[in-house]
Amino acid sequence: MKKDREGFSLLEALVALGILSFIVAAILSGFSAQIYTNTKIREKNLAISLAEERIEEVLKYSRDQLNNMGVINKTIVEDFSKKTQTTGPLVSSKYANLKDYRGMKRTTVITQDPANSELLDIKVTVEYGKKGNKYPFKVVLVTKRGG
To answer: How many domains does the chain have?
Structure first.
């Protein structure tokens, strides 16, 4: 006589549970990878914004104004991970206490173009992702400015 089976055996239930847990684990790891990626992209976008802002700030001044400020042929470093900021021309303190910028450092170098004395080379480097004393990532924007 054949026995009619209704429901699942213990083995079938365990196999179904194993497959389900594998699928859930894959979905959760995808979510965590996406969160990590979003964090890294956000940091990079903030770094790009800092660099672009500095370029725009430098471009609003004439060459004579930049020369009077004493920023030509100087390196201006702003380390936003420090509580106290150095002061001086082109140094912005508005990011010093903002949490999103704490692991960033912005370096601005304005030099005279060696090929054309009428032009200034502007280089802004923003390093981010501070781990210990090192910045593993950086964004560099370079432009030229005429008289």
So the answer is: 1
Q: Which amino acid is at 118?
A: E
Quick check: is 1 in a domain? no
Look up residue 5 and give its two tokens.
């089976």
| Residue 26 within any structural domain of the chain | yes
Question: Among 109, 118, 98, 136, which residue's Cα sits nearest to residue 55?
Answer: 109
Condensed to tens digits (0 to 9), the pLDDT of residues 39-67 reads 899 999 999 999 999 999 999 988 889 98
Whether 34 is covered by a domain: the verdict is yes
The dihedral sign for the CA sequence 26, 31, 32, 37: positive
Residues of the domain holding 15: 10-146
Dist. CA 42–CA 100, nearest whole Å: 9
Q: How far apart are CA 91 and CA 71, in angstroms?
A: 11
